[in-house]
Amino acid sequence: MKLVVVSAGLSVPSSTRLLADRLAAATARHTPVDVQVVEVRELAVEIAHHLTNGFPGRALSAALDAVTGADGLIVVTPVFTASYSGLFKSFFDLIDPAALTGKPVLIAATGGTARHSLVLEHALRPLFAYLRAVVVPTAVYAASEDWGAPGLAERIDRAAAELAALMTGLTRSDAAIGSNAVTGREAGAGSAPDTADALRVVPFEEQLARLGAA
């Protein structure tokens, strides 16, 4: 499975990138994934050109394809003026509104104070709900005082487990649908594939329980 991490940090080194890397590593501990990181900072000029002339550069085009083709996303932004950064928003403004439909997304943010933690719920979650992505229940915010303090590692692991469960559940459903379709063809023209089980919606709690038992 392909996991794409979108990090919108502006500095080097970046606490935003550090949080993104920890979330990706935690997800990889729960399920095998190929991780690709998109550093939005490196695409700033191409994003500006695309917004003004309508044509993406080569690096930006590759990044957009990676995001839309991923099995799951981790998106992390620094907090500016009580919201996500303008560069972060500009990047996702370039993605077709239907391209993230049903895609599992873990949202996270970093900031200088814990007072900005609600940015996850009043800005990031509504953005990806509008894009019809499936946002995992646990969002992760890391203020300056959270690094090295109790609690952050547990939040990271819980959110990563939820993302892994969603990614694994969707992949298994796709495989089951494909398998049933083949079975139906092999059975002959008069037999229809049994897709009842393949199309069954697996409750999120059941997915987490299966992941924990694996």
Automatic annotation (TrEMBL):
Protein name: Oxidoreductase
The organism of origin for this protein: Streptomyces shenzhenensis
Superkingdom: Bacteria
Keyword annotations from UniProtKB, A to Z: Flavoprotein, FMN, Oxidoreductase
InterPro entries reported in the protein's UniProt record: CE1759_FMN_reduct (IPR023932), Flavoprotein-like_sf (IPR029039), FMN_Rdtase-like_dom (IPR005025), NAD(P)H-dep_FMN_reductase (IPR051814)
Lineage summary: Bacteria, Bacillati, Actinomycetota, Actinomycetes, Kitasatosporales
SUPFAM superfamilies registered for this protein in UniProt: Flavoproteins
GO molecular-function terms, A-Z: oxidoreductase activity
Domain NADPH-dependent FMN reductase-like: 1-147
